[in-house]
Amino acid sequence: MSDRMASASVPLLQLRDIEKTFPGVRALSEVSFDVRAGEVHALLGENGAGKSTLIKIVSGVYQPDSGVILIDGREAHFATPEDAKRAGVATIYQELLLFPELTVAENIFLGHAPRGRLGRIDWTAMRANAEELLASLDIDDLASDMIVGSLPVGNRQRVEILRALSHDARILIMDEPTAALTESDVMRLFDIVRRLKARGVAVVYISHRLDEIFAIADRVTVLRDGAYVGAREVAETSAAELVQMMVGRRIENLFPKTAVPIGGPVLEARDLVRRPMTKKVSFAVRRGEIVGLAGLVGSGRSELAQTIFGVTPAESGEIRLLGETVKIDSPESARAKGIAYVPEDRGVQGLVRAMSVLHNFSLAALNGLSRWGFIDRSAERRMAEEGVERFSVRTSSVDEIAGRLSGGNQQKIVLGKWLANNPRLLILDEPTRGIDVGAKAEIHRLMGELAAGGVAILMISSELPEVLGMSDRVLVMREGRLVAEFDRARATSEAVGAAMMGSEPHVEKAA
Amino acid sequence: MSATAFVAAASARNGGLRRFASQEALLAVAVIGLAIVVGFINPRFLAARNLSDLLLGNAYIAIAAVGMSMVIISGNIDISVGALIGVLATLSGSMAVAGIPTVLCWLTPLIFGLSVMAAQGAVVAYLRIPAIVVTLGMMSILKGGLISVTGGRWITDLPQDFHLADRNIYGVPMPVAIMVVATALAALWMRYSAAGRAIYATGGNAEAARLCGVNPQRTVVMVFALHGLFAGIAALVYATQLRVIQSTTPPGLELTVITASVVGGVSILGGVGTVVGSTLAAILIAEITSALVFINVSPYWTDAVRGALILATVIADIVRRQRRAARGWKR
């Protein structure tokens, strides 16, 4: 942050009021962003906040519906990734786009190798150019003739960076570059980023790891649900403030959590261990209680849920249901004991898209609906029709293919099929992610109803307002451990946010 | 634009069950329509003798296709079925010639088929090796083993009462009766049993099925075992209608069986299809093969026509899926 020499000039890249809508989903609305030469500008936000869409617009993969892109202050139109590349934009995606069988030099110059006579590739020049690039970043542990497939991930990533530089990239976008790196690789990556900065390259750095942003970025822009929340100088902000911006406080929803009498414990977990993400976790959920499980993405929330549900059974520790010690070693056994789990990714985990609404509804209840192995079809239909009614699933009929419905309606089916089982413990993983406000309110209403009916609910959510609004108690996970617990009265967004981050609350900055 | 919207809206109104039914109706119409058209060109095609030969000679393919359809619906594939039928037919015939009681000769292929396939299913399910690899290996083992053990000797002088396929039941030739009963039972079971539903769920989304308490591994073993049983029945029908069992596998039989499933509307990606469709498709394919002869087209064209049929069906399936996926975005 010491060198601000370039900050006075016109930003190298500017985005103004970018809008992008996919069918049924508003991915970005009125997002503005800029990055100057020699600056690292971080883009921060939870999954689904619109970071990826934004960088795909900058790199020409998508075209914005409205808004302008300015390069050096002049308007630019990127119809294809090729256009963006010509304008000096290079993107390094999370999944590296390298050819493992080829050498470092071949990968760097793929598609624009130096040519000799008759269009022959000039191998000598290519190798020399590659060595020159390596030298320019003081990389001495890579050689131009190494086979990329044999390199560790961190080194492959540097090859990708070199490839970007070989295109004379002036704007380098890095999408969660440290996701797969070891600690020492991260250090070397930061070293390279600093060198690029010194050369006047503008770096757009995407991450949701706050420590990295404080280590490497000059400015940070926060996105949430596709909307621009704000930009801060890194030197002038705090982790608590950024978390607040990321998870936000939205007023659009009224969370209808009604007070219901809370009974005895339904689930008691003691010292649950499942490597690598569940480390000695103990907690309880009681009858009629909604317990919110907060934490950043990657803190081990979903892993904990899957351990309780037997997807990844616990290696040690104890699970008690209604006071009785139980052994849960598969989803089948969890289900038989009255646990229901509505997974985070309904497409992959929750729904059989090719099957009808009817069959999806009954899938989790087949044993109860069958006699001598055959399904009682009228009971099945009744169940599905009741479910469609109760959950206001918008479908032409229960015979409609589930994959044809909207995301919110699909989520209602996933939720509904579990409730047909009358579970005692319901685990909801991101129950309202990616669905519209109306469907969201309906799901919240249902959760309230279920709790009132005596179901114990464990809800994982990345939306702090949802956690705070719906929960009787809030548990916070960080790095595989439960680090804090708040009752409803004391669960404020500041306190929970600070626990999620692991920062000392209210120390760095008055909120 | 508005035309596409109209088509999309119209097909969206088609419910799930109706969509499956329409594939079967289409095949039934094709089977009858083709007979009429070919009969118009060459009336001898419609002779009772020809039609009955056509059904009798291909019933075993339809029976094998019933099991194959289940396997493909579960998200797997089996290419060892042709070789297995060859082995089972030889086994059954050899036992009959050796003077072993006929009932045992009939039951052995069923039990043996079930066991071999269940074992393959277990390897696929528990060792997580793709079915195409496992069954490719098994195909070679069975083919190689068969020729090594028999030395390519033909089995002749089969005892008279061995020929189950020659019998009639209430006037219906046995192969046709078995085909109809096998298809009907399998169809009812696939549609109305919890286990059948588990097969669709596993093929459609194994992860979701698992979270719903379906055991995908057990389902896959079960599907293969049943497929083995149907392969055994197919082998029984095949063996007992021959005077001479050649101790080799009918060439390309596995592909014919897979073709029947795919043309019958079973999605090669799993999760979609019915066994009624595959039986109708098996009949349609046999009919096309025979029709080519009657309208004087070189039989060499048979494979090409069959191939075109596969491509057309698969493309139609993919197009349908893409339309559905595109609609999935809409609210």
Q: How many structural domains does the protein architecture of chain A include?
A: 3
Q: Architecture of the largest domain in chain A, CATH level 2?
A: 3-Layer(aba) Sandwich
- Amount of beta strand of chain A: 15-25%
Calculate Rg of chain B over CA atoms.
Answer: 20 Å
Number of E-type strands of chain A:
22
CATH class of the largest domain in chain A: Alpha Beta
Task: Sum up the structure in keywords.
heterodimer, A: 511 residues, alpha/beta, Rossmann fold, six-stranded mixed sheet, 18 helices, elongated, B: 331 residues, ABC transporter involved in vitamin B12 uptake, BtuC, 13 helices
Structure description:
- The complex is a heterodimer of chains A (511) and B (331).
- Chain A is an alpha/beta fold and 511 residues long.
- Chain A has three domains: 5-247, 3-Layer(aba) Sandwich (Rossmann fold), CATH 3.40.50; 281-338 and 423-505, P-loop containing nucleotide triphosphate hydrolases (Rossmann fold), CATH 3.40.50.300; 356-421, no CATH class.
- Helices cover 33% and strands 25% of the residues of chain A.
- Chain A has 18 helices and 22 strands.
- Chain A is elongated, with a radius of gyration of 26 Å.
- Chain B is mainly α and 331 residues long.
- Chain B has one domain: ABC transporter involved in vitamin B12 uptake, BtuC, CATH 1.10.3470.
- Chain B contains 13 helices and two strands, in the order H-H-H-H-H-H-E-E-H-H-H-H-H-H-H.
- Chain B has helices at residues 2-13, 16-41, 48-73, 81-97, 102-126, 131-150, 174-192, 194-204, 206-211, 216-240, 253-263, 275-294, 301-328; strands spanning 168-169, 172-173.
- Chain B has a two-stranded antiparallel sheet with strand order 1-2.
- In chain B, strand 1 and strand 2 (172-173) form a beta hairpin.
- In chain B, helix 3 (48-73) packs antiparallel against helix 12.
- The model of chain B is unreliable at 1-21 (pLDDT under 50).
- The chains are: A alpha/beta (511), B mainly alpha (331).
